[in-house]
Design goal:
alpha+beta; globular; 7-stranded antiparallel β-sheet
Length: about 675
């Protein structure tokens, strides 16, 4: 095949180099019916109905066997072997053999093979070379008059005099390319290419590249704008990650994609890297606290929250490492609460608009340790996550530039959600102490999940002050977890928890424990207690017919509700039992009581001793399926035949949430009634 090219050149010494441009506007199109064999059959079999004049020029001088091989490749792998790639490759092969205008490539090819021909075709050092530009979709680019647009490549100086001749040639110097090259040869050689801005002036392509990022082709040095592009927009060569520098994508030692940017590449959006927000600051817990106008700044590079006067004078700064909650007010769309470790009280802020509050929440989310945010534009094609490192140099703030120092990072995810493993279970203490069973309790509640919601039923009165429960589970879970909520305690470990709005001290409690890396994602924690005391029996005997504890919380953008319910085992009428459960559901008054409980949450769990096992037949599934109670709730039927006293049912909003149950079991070795369920919850970022 290669000798075929050599023969063409040797017997046609005046054969010019084929134009690297593709079809120009108005170019003649040939129907394959007009093309002779064997090219006709090959094109028909490949499903190609017509070709342009310039494409036909390439095919006419190409060995048919080579064309056939490429067309078969297009049939088997159309994403790799596109028509544009095939024509470009064949054109490049012919130009390498022909050696351009001077024929040096043909001479080298006759002497010593393909590699020498390619080297000779490149010409002497500094020789001008041009490649036609393609847009993001792989289509050739043309100016307003229909002439193809060319780029100088390989660091050559674009003086506009050696541009490709022929129909539609573009005067590069007239368009400003020559002026740019003469004025800054070193910068041009470093960038390898320029482009025209909206005003028709030459500009640095890299500076024009970023709303997302750019990457530089290692063959033609064109700076591509679209980070998702798998091939270069000019030469169609598959993307590689060999060149360093801002806007570059590479794989780090762990094999994760890593994107490097400068702050100025984000243009006007760079101001959020040192975001400044006009707010009204006050202390909601103090009646003596006045409201003050403030300027709150979040520094992405130094990882600080700064409280400043409206003139910009800083009064104090809080380290982002100590931030553990950003909590939007559940009913007031302008209010927000910040909670920091080592801070004497929460910081309450009022924003002028809902949009300002939402933007503050998004910027504050970047201050978490190793934050993961939904930013698909920063992820390469077929890559789920990318590490984005931003080096500060300057910030664009309303047309004014200010310096920035330091380096910040976050993890950009293509997926709008993350999956958290949630353990939900309950133990009926039967008015006895907590099970001090060591390994047996660890088997029931292993330390391998992200969130734990544990309901305790029939808690003895001596433990209802919450202190024993808190000390027990703090020691049990250890330093890698935080005991986030203990409903039996009046003073929880973390401030900002409302609750205690219902009947106090029922014989039930809910404990919420989260892994350390989940703590900063949790907000809007609330609980409500409902108690219906029964008759007292013998001395020191405690009983209760009906009680419930409800807990609500938000994890990132997903809301979760959990009801611990205990119903008397003495009710033998199924309708009466349904009524008790419906009564508990109707009494829940977490957050805004004007919003119906059934539409307030993305996930809803009901767990506890519901008592349906005491009926002649377990009617729970029949009542749920008949929409008489807990409509649309689900329960794994793996334990349905065991008639257990404790159950776990769940519901999720079909359009915005997804729950995958992984386990549903009981642990008889605890010696107390119990149940546990494990779910993978899809939590919106």
């Amino acid at each position: 095949q290669f000798l075929y090219f050599i023969g063409l050149v040797l017997f046609n010494p005046a054969c010019p180099s084929l134009d690297r441009g593709a079809m120009a506007e108005g170019e003649t199109m040939y129907s394959v019916e007009q093309i002779d064999e064997p090219l006709y059959s090959m094109l028909v079999n490949a499903g190609i109905a017509e070709v342009s004049h310039s494409d036909y020029e390439v095919l006419a001088v190409t060995d048919p066997a080579t064309t056939q091989a490429y067309l078969e490749g297009m049939a088997s792998d159309p994403e790799t072997y596109t028509w544009e790639m095939i024509i470009y490759t064949l054109r490049e092969a012919y130009n390498a053999a022909a050696g351009g205008e001077g024929g040096e490539g043909a001479e080298a090819a006759a002497e010593g093979g393909e590699e020498a021909a390619a080297e000779a075709a490149e010409g002497a050092e500094g020789e001008q070379q041009y490649v036609q530009a393609y847009d993001e979709e792989g289509n050739p680019m043309y100016d307003e008059e229909g002439n193809p647009v060319y780029y100088a490549v390989d660091g050559a100086a674009a003086d506009g005099e050696e541009q490709p001749e022929g129909e539609g040639g573009l005067d590069l110097e007239a368009q400003g390319y020559g002026e740019y090259a003469e004025g800054d040869e070193e910068a041009y050689a470093e960038e390898g290419v320029t482009e025209l801005n909206e005003d028709g002036e030459a500009q640095d392509t890299e500076q024009a590249a970023v709303d997302t990022a750019s990457w530089t082709c290692t063959k033609c040095t064109f700076v591509n704008k679209v980070i998702d592009a798998a091939v270069c927009a000019v030469c169609r060569v598959p993307r590689t990650c060999e060149q360093e520098g801002p806007g570059h994508v590479e794989r780090n030692a762990e094999g994760r994609t890593e994107l490097k940017l400068r702050s100025d590449m984000l243009k006007e959006k760079s101001k959020y890297l040192k975001g400044q927000f006009k707010v009204v600051k006050y202390n909601a817990d103090s009646i003596l606290s006045g409201k003050k106008d403030r300027l709150f700044e979040i520094d992405f590079f130094k990882r600080e929250f700064r409280n400043c006067s409206t003139g910009g004078t800083q009064s104090f700064a809080l380290q982002s490492a100590n931030l553990y909650r950003v909590e939007r007010h559940i009913s007031n769309p302008l209010n927000l609460k910040l909670l920091f470790f080592k801070s004497p009280h929460p910081i309450d802020l009022i924003f002028p608009t809902c949009a300002d509050r939402q933007r503050f929440v998004e910027v504050a989310a970047l201050q978490r340790k190793n934050p993961v945010v939904w930013a698909p534009n920063f992820c390469r094609e077929n890559v789920k996550e990318s590490i984005v490192k931003i080096e500060g140099n300057k910030i664009d703030r309303g047309g004014k530039s200010e310096p920035a120092e330091g380096t910040g990072m976050f993890i950009a995810s293509r997926m709008p959600y993350e999956v958290l493993s949630v353990w939900a279970g309950t133990i009926n203490l039967q008015f006895r102490g907590l099970p001090n069973m060591g390994e047996k309790l660890e088997e029931f509640c292993p330390m391998e999940h992200d969130v734990y919601v544990l309901g305790l039923q029939d808690v003895p009165s001596s433990m209802r002050d919450g202190k024993q429960i808190q000390e027990f589970f703090t020691a049990f879970f250890g330093q890698n977890f935080y005991l986030l909520l203990n409903t039996s305690s009046d003073s929880n470990v973390f401030a900002g928890i409302e609750g205690r709005k219902g009947d106090k001290n029922p014989p039930g409690a809910v404990v919420v424990v989260v892994r350390r890396n989940v703590l900063a994602k949790v907000a809007n924690i609330d609980f409500f207690e409902m108690n219906e005391p029964g008759q007292s029996g013998k001395k020191n005997k405690e009983t209760s017919d009906v009680y419930g504890v409800f807990v609500a919380l938000r994890i990132q953008e997903t809301t979760i509700g959990v009801l611990l319910a205990n119903l008397t085992p003495n009710l033998t009428d199924v309708n009466a039992r349904n009524g008790k459960l419906q009564m508990l559901m109707s009494r829940i008054k977490c957050h805004d009581p004007l919003i119906d409980i059934s539409v307030r949450f993305d996930y809803f769990f009901v767990l506890g001793s519901l008592g349906y096992h005491t009926l002649p037949t377990d009617e729970l599934h029949a009542q749920v399926q008949g929409q008489l109670v807990l409509t649309d709730f689900k329960e794994w039927d793996i334990l349905a035949d065991m008639c257990l006293p404790d159950r776990v049912l769940y519901w999720h909003r079909a359009r915005s949430a997804k729950a995958s149950q992984q386990q549903y079991s009981t642990a008889p070795h605890l010696g107390m009634p119990n149940i546990l369920a494990v779910f993978d919850l899809y939590v919106l970022r």
